[in-house]
Amino acid sequence: MAFLRRLLGRKPGRRVVLVTPPSYFTETMMRMPTYPFSLVPVVSMTPFIPLGPAYLAASLRKAGFDPRVVDLTFFDKRKVDVEQVRDAILSQKPEAVGLSTLTWTINQVYDIANALKAEDGDLPITVGGPHASAIPHRTLEECPSIDSAIIGDGEYAYRDYLNLLFEKGHCDEMAELRGTVFRHGDRVIGDNSPNYIDDLDALPSPARDLFNIERYREFSRNFIAKKTPVASIMTSRGCPQACVFCYRASSGYKYRSRSPGNVVREIEHLHKLGFNEVQIPDDNFTADRPRVYEVCRLIKERGLDMSFDLPNGMRVDHVTEELMEKMYNVGFYSIHLGVESCDDHVLKTIRKGITVEQVKRAVKITKDIGYNIILYIIIGLPGSTVEAEARTLDVLQEMDVPFTFSICTPYPGAPLWKEVEDELRDVSWDRYDETDATDPLYLPEGMTQEQLKECVDRANEYLLKPKM
Question: What confidence tens digit (pLDDT) does each residue in 152-177 have?
């Protein structure tokens, strides 16, 4: 009855509050090109305006809703005051709440959902994002306070769900909505098929105005960047590769991209907002190289004096002299190469689709052009051995290039997760930490925990070794 009263008393412009997850800024020590004789702390995740919720808010606003944001990006997940967050959400007088989920912050999401339901048992709570997209039924089973989950791209799916929710409440009709799992009575039902939007140009620009732009702008002045302030932009979604360690439940394996003109218009807008550098965290920015050429041409044509970074990693088999020179000439200066291992057997086992020779060639091309490059390495991948990890360090030393490493962690949605899901059933989500070698969630066949820690220690020793 309370929910019915809420609907009858509703005013135009239904209020939906979107909550971004709290952060977990782990640091790793690295020797950067600009600081060759000392180690500097590098934050593994840097706070940008969360593009997922920003896109979602823009689409809801276009559909006639009144979206608001409670942004927890600057909150450490270990210090979140759940009651304070609850009060901040409820002070916005929401008719529905959407919570973004990441595996390493899902327990905090559960706490927030439980606190909201304890205060207002009729408030509809929906989750989306990578974690909920990977295991929607389990997410709702683990937290009875959550009413529904949106799988994959949420811009249209959440809009359609809310329209039906506000018209009829949770009903049998809702089971026809693609990629929507919901609680109906004592059952969790719905369509597990993910939503993937093909025409990304049709989406409105992210609603950055709902976030504290000035705070993000000022905080980004602390980044290790060529120019500041720094913003981020998503130019494509999905990746056609099938690396066993990588989770794609939210963005998918189907590559979809925005047109060059659409991308550059947003870059121009960010420049007008006072940002001088743009980081592009696409899953696979260079999958369509002609598109990248056209983006570069438009950046040059419009005289955008900005710098650009690819922090989410670029495939080494995409690296060519022509492509890298075109990008470098319009302001791309920093390239993170997703290498994972410098052992051919491991690369084949994880279905990376590259070879060590391609790694060496890509490093040489990018170094010769003048890029700042960092290699991403994962220790303890399937197929790895102590000897394979030693070979990786030998190749890294030979190439003399900065790198950062993490420990193989099977996240929900990754092919590797499906192999070990049953073994990890009772493991707390808080243990999904890519930096802790003392309590790993995964060990490759034949490698002991002690051996894994030794490999991590050797990698750290290499990083700590002074460079002459």
Answer: 999 999 999 999 999 999 998 999 99
Whether the Cβ atoms of residue 50 and residue 71 lie closer than 8 Å to each other: yes
Summarize pLDDT for 191-223 with one digit per residue, the tens: 989 999 999 999 999 999 999 999 999 988 888
Residues 260 and 376 in one domain: yes
The verdict on 381 and 446 lying in the same domain is yes
Residues 167 and 259 occupy one common structural domain? no
Which tokens belong to 419? 């192999």
Residue with tokens 């989410």: 312
Q: Is the pTM of this model over 0.85?
A: yes
Q: What angle do CA 446, 450, 454 make, to 5 degrees?
A: 105
Q: Find the domain containing 322 and state its range.
A: 212-464
Asked if residues 44 and 28 have their Cβ atoms less than 8 Å apart, the reply is: yes
What gap in Å lies between CA 177 and CA 172, rounded to an integer? 10
Scored b (16 or more CB within 10 A) or e, 335-361 reads: bbbbbbbbbbebbebbebebebebbbe
Residue 404 class from Cβ within 10 Å (0-12 exposed, 13-18 middle, 19+ buried)?
A: middle
Amino acid at 342: C
